[in-house]
Structure formats: structure tokens, C-alpha cells
Specification:
It is built from 1 helix and 5 strands; from the N terminus they run αβββββ. The chain is elongated and about 65 Å long. By secondary structure, the protein is of the alpha+beta class. 22% of the residues lie in helices and 30% in strands.
Length: 116
């Protein structure tokens, strides 16, 4: 979400009356807050679901992060995997049960023996 600003060559750039920057900022905050609330709710609604996760990152500390089919890079959250994560490699596909969320990110427990 971003606020309006004049863009060179557009018709709106020539309009005499402009919306006050404080109003723009308030509108951006309102829409951003609503969007975050909806994103969090959608993630919460997935608790209890079974998801197939593509493992994308394995951290030095053993954390494993991936994406489910409904998650696009850089726009949606990710899946933080727990449970049977030892031995997982980047590119593995695993089945995991969503047990919680952290904002848009899901927390899911890997089902043993589900690595593909």
C-alpha cells in the first residue's frame, strides 16, 4: 500500500486541488492496518490444515523455512517448519500440519516420512 503522489505526465498532476499529505498518510495507515488484519486472519484460518511445503532455506541454527502452494515469494508469508526437520534439504517437498501462525507466516509441523 502506498499513498498518492503526483507523477509527471499524468492528468492528476495538473489538478489544482490536492489531498492534504496528512489525509493521505491516514488513509494509507487505515488500508495497511485492514490488509494486515485480513492477512493474519487468513493465516489463522489455515491452522489445522495439511500443506505441502517446498523447503527453501535451512539456517545455520537449524531453522527450516519454505513455502506452501498458496504462498508467492516476496508477497505472501512463508512456512516455518518444526518437528522432523533434521536432514531436510533445500528443494525437498514435505507434508506438514499447520499448528500456528505468526502474522502472515505459518508454523507447521513436518509429518514424519513425508519427504519427497
Amino acid at each position: 500500500v502506498f499513498g498518492y503522489s503526483d507523477e509527471e505526465g499524468t492528468e492528476a498532476e495538473t489538478f489544482a486541488s490536492k489531498i492534504h499529505p496528512d489525509v493521505i498518510a491516514e488513509r494509507v495507515e487505515r488500508v495497511t492496518s485492514l490488509a494486515n488484519e485480513l492477512i493474519n486472519q487468513r493465516a489463522e484460518d489455515r491452522i489445522g490444515d495439511l500443506v505441502e511445503v517446498l523447503v527453501e532455506e535451512i539456517g545455520q541454527d537449524g531453522t527450516v523455512v519454505g513455502r506452501a502452494a498458496h504462498q508467492a515469494p516476496d508477497t505472501d508469508g512463508c512456512v516455518n517448519l518444526t518437528g522432523a526437520v533434521v536432514g531436510l534439504q533445500r528443494g525437498d517437498l514435505v507434508l506438514a500440519d499447520v499448528i500456528d501462525n505468526d502474522g502472515a507466516d505459518l508454523i507447521a509441523e513436518v509429518r514424519s516420512g513425508s519427504v519427497r
